TrEMBL record:
It holds the Pfam family Ldh_1_N. Keywords: Allosteric enzyme, Cytoplasm, NAD, Oxidoreductase, Phosphoprotein. Beta-D-fructose 1,6-bisphosphate binds at residues 164, 179. Substrate binds at residues 93, 99, 131-134, 159-162, 242. The keyword Ubl conjugation does not apply. Pathway: Fermentation; pyruvate fermentation to lactate; (S)-lactate from pyruvate: step 1/1. Homotetramer. The keyword NAD applies. Its main location: cytoplasm. This is L-lactate dehydrogenase. It is found in: Cytoplasm. InterPro entries: L-lactate/malate_DH, L-lactate_DH, L-lactate_DH_AS, Lactate/malate_DH_C, Lactate/malate_DH_N, Lactate_DH/Glyco_Ohase_4_C, NAD(P)-bd_dom_sf. PANTHER family: L-2-HYDROXYCARBOXYLATE DEHYDROGENASE (NAD(P)(+)) (PTHR43128), L-LACTATE DEHYDROGENASE (PTHR43128:SF16).
Length: 325
């Protein structure tokens, strides 16, 4: 796959900046480089030795991927004139720390990072990955002064991938043949949209038995949803961080932006009267392309799903309000 070239870059090739060179930021850069998303990658982190080492480690494997360059710096000027900026930098959740406490610490980081980033790359599309992503996306968007289509979060793209993976295992099909979305918060209040889920051409709610002979009923679906919600906790308990799957999923979002693919992705963006939900950033199926987030699609939902989405929005909004956003 050839690196994408946008004529608006003057033929220099697309530049993607990654703010934060931790496990997630490095995985995003690595996955994007392998997929040939961009021609140039610029990594920024305040830890100079870490960011330069991560960039060098990735760059030295570039012979085996589509042609690209990778650089790392502790000077934010490295992201200058980027076409897309990915923000992975944020506070690391400590044992016993609440979601509210994590949100406050990460928002404080955004107050420093976002204005400086926009100054260096004023025409970029901004993709927030730092958690809690919905609240931080809303705060970051407000701090940026950009249009709501140009500043959005990775949302439940990974959650939806986890959901499709588990449905595929249960049904004995490839994950690529499962079409199902998690909407709402990227977190405990997220909602699986079972009523619109499909396996191939078959509505999920009409699917027969699973591979182990069980009916795909409410109990089995609830167990799948529970495993989706618990996935990150289980991985963190085992290895301390989740990074590979989020790296691949963010690279996929970047590909849709850079190549203007207009893919339908459940990213977290500002909603205004979406099923009556307003003034909050949360995930709904949306068309993503070179201009950022386009139309937010409105699927058919059941009353139970609708109520869950409203509660999820209220939960996100309540946290944002506590920090003045």
């Amino acid at each position: 796959m050839a690196p994408a070239i946008d004529p608006r870059t003057g033929g220099r090739g697309t530049k993607v900046a990654i703010i934060g060179a931790g496990a997630v930021g490095s995985a995003v850069t690595y996955a994007s480089m392998i997929q040939g998303v961009a021609r140039h990658y610029a990594m920024f982190d305040i830890n100079e030795s870490r960011v330069k080492a991560e960039a060098l480690d990735i760059a030295q494997g570039s012979q085996f991927a589509p042609v690209s360059t990778v650089e790392g710096s502790s000077d934010i000027a490295v992201i200058k004139d980027s076409d897309v900026v990915v923000i992975t930098a944020g506070a690391k959740q400590k044992p016993g720390q609440s979601r509210l406490e994590l949100a406050g610490a990460t928002i404080d980081i955004m107050k420093s990072i976002v204005p400086k980033a926009v100054e260096q790359a004023p025409d970029a599309i901004y993709l927030m990955v730092a958690n809690p992503v919905d609240v931080v996306t809303y705060a970051g968007w407000k701090l940026s002064g950009l249009s709501d289509g140009r500043f959005f979060g990775s949302g439940t793209v990974l959650d939806s991938s986890r959901l499709r993976y588990l449905i595929a295992l249960a049904c004995g099909v490839a994950p690529q043949n499962v079409h199902a979305y998690i909407a709402g918060e990227h977190g405990d209040s997220e909602i699986p949209l079972w009523s619109s889920a499909m396996v191939g051409a078959v509505p999920l709610l009409q699917w027969g038995q699973t591979v182990d002979g069980k009916l795909l009923d409410d109990g089995v679906r609830e167990a799948i949803h529970h495993d989706v919600v618990r996935s990150a906790y289980n991985i963190i308990e085992g290895k301390g961080v989740t990074n590979y799957a989020i790296g691949i999923s963010v690279a996929s979002i970047l590909g849709s932006i850079v190549r203007d693919e207009h893919r339908v992705l459940p990213v977290s963006s500002y909603l205004e009267d979406w099923l009556g939900i307003s003034d909050v950033c949360m995930s709904v199926p949306s068309i993503v392309g070179r201009a950022g987030v386009g139309p937010r699609l409105v699927p058919v939902v059941t009353p139970r799903e609708y109520d869950g989405l409203r509660r999820s929005a209220d939960s996100i909004r309540d946290v944002a309000r506590q920090f003045g956003f």
